[in-house]
Amino acid sequence: MSVDRLPSGLYRVRVADRGVRGTAGTRRVTIGVYPTKKLAKTALVKAIEKRDAGVRFVPDRVTLNHLGDRHIAACRERGLSDTTTHRYQQLWDSYIRDRIGETRVADLSPLQLETYYAQLMRAGGTTRRGRAKNAAPGKPRPLSPRTVGHVHGLLQATLNWALRLELVSRNPAAVARPPAGSRRPGKAFEEHEVDALLDTAERYRIGPLIAFVLETGLRRGELAGLRWDDVDLGRAVATIRGAIAQVPGRTWYKSTKQDSVKGVALSTAAIAALRTQRTRQAAEKLFGGTAYRDEGFVFAPPLGGYPSPGSLGNAVRRVAKRAGLELTKLHAARHTTATVLLRQGEDLATVAAVLRHSSSSTTLATYAHEVVGAQRAAVGRAGDERAARRARRNGTPCERPA
């Protein structure tokens, strides 16, 4: 048992761990590294108490991958949604398993994690040659601070789970800090791009969906999950009661929590798009006959059934490319809705309500560049009005800035 001062000025705590997995000998296990000697001594006392109570500090030979696999399996067993556990698995397999996954938990340190986060920021991702799942990886690319933050959050949750079950005695991810970084600004279509997209979309089956999403800003899962029963054209409102969730090999309808059911006001253009879609869908039902499976979805496939968010996104991407646009993602239409509203002078709370953000802070973080522009324009208008008022009072002409 010892408290050692390291060259960095920090204090390392090590304790003799007796009888690991029934072995007769002892070994010294590092409990943690602390900024002051007082904190280190306090940690040493607690560690000795735990050891004497029979708590093992770290299971022998246990790696991060062991804990990660068990944690994700436990998340599935306790009923966490398939989309969430799929995302956990995706993050672990893409960024943790082959990089630091084989690190023994006993050897893991906050410094090692922060070095790992920095490596992810520099070249943690790879581009793929083509969109096929088996496409060869291309050049390394940097990961965004947000993605690295998700990796950090998963590591911290995994180690917290292990700490609660006394599989480990410390959580180095609780001390390590992920890289700071602002949310990437949402990329929106410019006005001429919207015109080109709508003109091109008129010739395709997906046209009404594109016109509708530009007016409402729905997410692609919400678009796929919208049912005719949720639409009231007379009151010009659509109610978002759920969304289509999708993971490889499975697509299903996921109801929204009761307190999260939101109404979406429909513009004249949105109503026109829905009327066009209903007319086209009626023709598809007639053509499909008994083969048509009517599940009541607004943007159903040609023969009915469940619409796939991925398929809707791919259809929009193809139309955007035919329109000659560089920005082709369906989500760009959502960003466009927000951008147009902010440029028209709508307040942040209204835009957040239209986008169904849980708080205005999310809207501000995503569209801060547009908010600043709207504020600048508002200040400019106020200044012009003040100058004009003074000019009228003084009887002098008011010069507007060029």
List the helices and strands and how they pair.
Elements: E1 2-5, E2 11-18, E3 26-34, H1 37-52, H2 64-77, H3 82-96, H4 110-123, E4 125-128, E5 137-141, H5 145-164, H6 191-201, H7 207-216, H8 220-225, E6 231-232, E7 237-240, E8 242-247, E9 250-255, E10 262-265, H9 268-288, H10 309-322, H11 331-343, H12 348-355, H13 360-366, H14 368-394
Antiparallel strand pairs: 1-2, 2-3, 4-5, 6-7, 7-10, 8-9
Helix pairs in contact: 2-3, 2-5, 6-7, 7-9, 7-11, 11-12, 12-13
How would you describe what is shown here?
The chain is α+β, with helices and mostly antiparallel strands. The protein folds into three domains: 2-52, no CATH class; 64-174, DNA polymerase, domain 1; 191-349, hpI Integrase, Chain A. Helix content is 49%, strand content 13%. It is built from 14 helices and ten strands. The strands form four sheets. It has a three-stranded antiparallel sheet, covered by helices on one side. Strands 6-7-10 form a three-stranded antiparallel sheet, with no helix packed on it. A hairpin with a 7-residue loop joins strand 2 (11-18) and strand 3 (26-34). Helix 2 crosses helix 5.
